[in-house]
């Protein structure tokens, strides 16, 4: 059975629904600190869980016969900069709790997301390679990079089959984002439809690697279903789909909402975005387990607006 930790978050809701469709609702236990998300109600078992409570997590894994854990709970980049030590503590201890229980209970597989946020100002900005200088400039990035090192350690020393993807900024409409720097690319849709206006907290030419949620969910499942010998990266795979700037997504939205206007008021999140790559080289993921994105900017904008 699968346990999803952080099932009510932006990724968690969609990953829970996708996994339940494949493996059956009863075989996917959803958990979060928060109460059950509307979209999850009636689709399978839900338990309240604080992943920082290792004993509680261990009991839950045994009681529900869990054999795979997806750990999605984390403090994201923007929120993390407001509370550095809390973000470090939560992002690291939650992962260590899961990895150690995976070792003790000999779990089949573990999934844990990293991020392009591991790259810092000294990494190549264009087509950032899988292996390169990695000097994260945010607490979130530091915790994700350290987490990647721990994943590789637990795989090498204890044989834990933990797999990971460095997600770009993710755009979705089913569940609210959780305090990320790329959240502008979600807010812009809601404001375009409600107010036909959006004030962006990043400057107009801030290019960032981005991906539509359906691609991210499919990548996660394809990675987790790959044979072990296909996996050559046990830290975290670079994963890419597209890159765009606020003005580019604004212009694409304007094709559907002609009255839409946009202005810019960069805030503290501009420095975070400026420390990240503009585009990602994900050739290792394509070579190892056949990764291929399906959504580009026009296709994503059309789908987002149709659903919203
Ligand atoms: C964030 N959405 O902004 C996350 C992600 C690459 C961005 O890690 O913090």
UniProtKB/TrEMBL annotation:
Give the originating organism: Chitinophaga japonensis (Flexibacter japonensis)
The GO terms this record gives for MF are: L-threonine 3-dehydrogenase activity
Taking every annotated instance into account, which residue ranges of this chain make up the domain NAD-dependent epimerase/dehydratase?
2-240
Domain of life the protein comes from: Bacteria
Matching SUPFAM superfamilies? NAD(P)-binding Rossmann-fold domains
Q: Which segments of the protein form a coiled coil according to its record?
A: none
> One of this protein's GO BP terms?
L-threonine catabolic process
Q: Please give the Pfam families that the UniProt record associates with this protein.
A: Epimerase (PF01370)
Return the InterPro entries for the record. Epimerase_deHydtase (IPR001509), NAD(P)-bd_dom_sf (IPR036291), NAD(P)_epim/dehydratase (IPR051225)
What is this protein's name? Nucleoside-diphosphate-sugar epimerase
Q: Which family does it belong to?
A: Belongs to the NAD(P)-dependent epimerase/dehydratase family.
């Amino acid at each position: 059975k699968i346990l999803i930790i952080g099932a009510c978050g932006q990724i968690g809701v969609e990953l829970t629904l996708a996994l339940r469709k494949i493996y059956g609702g009863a075989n996917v236990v959803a958990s979060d600190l928060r109460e059950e998300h509307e979209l999850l109600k009636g689709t399978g078992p839900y338990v309240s869980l604080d992943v920082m409570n290792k004993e509680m997590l261990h009991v839950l894994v045994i009681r529900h016969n869990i054999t795979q854990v997806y750990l999605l709970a984390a403090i994201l980049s923007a929120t993390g900069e407001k509370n550095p030590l809390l973000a470090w503590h939560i992002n690291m201890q939650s992962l260590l709790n899961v990895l150690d229980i995976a070792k003790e209970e000999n779990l089949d597989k573990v999934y844990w997301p990293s991020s392009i946020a591991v790259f810092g100002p000294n990494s190549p900005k264009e087509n950032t390679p899988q292996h390169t200088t990695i000097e994260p400039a945010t607490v979130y990035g530091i915790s994700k990079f350290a987490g990647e090192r721990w994943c590789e350690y637990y795989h090498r020393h204890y044989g834990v089959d933990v797999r990971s993807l460095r997600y770009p900024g993710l755009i979705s409409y089913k569940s609210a984002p959780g305090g990320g720097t790329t959240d502008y690319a979600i807010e812009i849709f809601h404001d375009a439809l409600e107010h036909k206006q959006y004030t962006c907290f990043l400057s107009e030419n801030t290019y960032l690697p981005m991906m539509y949620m359906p691609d991210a969910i499919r990548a996660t499942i394809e990675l987790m279903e790959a044979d072990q010998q296909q996996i050559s990266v046990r830290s975290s795979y670079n994963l890419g789909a597209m890159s765009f700037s606020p003005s580019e997504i604004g212009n694409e939205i304007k094709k559907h909402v002609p009255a839409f206007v946009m202005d810019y008021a960069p805030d503290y999140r501009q420095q975070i975005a400026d420390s990240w790559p503009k585009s990602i080289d994900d050739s290792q993921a394509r070579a190892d387990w056949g990764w291929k994105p399906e959504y580009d900017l026009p296709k994503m904008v059309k789908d987002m607006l149709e659903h919203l």
